[in-house]
Amino acid sequence: TNIIENAQRLPDPIPTLRENQTPVLILRGECDFIGWAVARTYRTTFPNSKLLPIPGAGHLIWVEQPQMYSSAIAAFVADTPLPIADYVGERVP
Predict the structure, then answer these.
(1) Which residues contact 93 (CB under 8 A, 6 or more apart)?
(2) Are 9 and 36 in contact (CB under 8 A)?
(3) For residues 64 and 5, which has the higher predicted lDDT (pLDDT)?
(4) Which residue in 2, 5, 20, 77 is deepest, having the highest Cβ count within 10 Å?
């Protein structure tokens, strides 16, 4: 068997993760090649999450927007105000 077949046999983790109250920071570059729906899935899966669409960044946020990347993580860990607003909308920001 291959990796994909093995992964398809695993139970869906999302129902269990929806019960996880651990704070989660989701960073997504506004120009990321991975679809917006993926970030929204993380947002709706983790009940105690924050989703920050990082302007001027693609998939490599730490390379393309290193200051915003560092600031967002530092603020989240310190439980201080985030450098940009948590996005809660359904549409692509």
Answers:
(1) 30, 53, 87
(2) no
(3) 64
(4) 20
**What distances in angstroms separate CA 66 from CA 16, 25, 33, 69, 92, one per listed residue?**
33, 16, 18, 5, 22
User: Counting beta carbons within 10 angstroms of the beta carbon of residue 53, is it exposed (0 to 12), middle (13 to 18) or buried (19 or more)?
Assistant: buried
The pTM for the full model equals 0.83
- Given pLDDT bands bounded at 50, 70 and 90, which one contains residue 1? low
Q: Compute the distance between CA of residue 73 and CA of residue 93 in angstroms, rounded to an integer.
A: 20
E strand or H helix at 53:
strand 49-54
What are the C-alpha distances in Å from 27 to residues 1, 37, 42, 79?
34, 13, 10, 16
What is the enclosing helix (H) or strand (E) of 49? Answer: strand 49-54
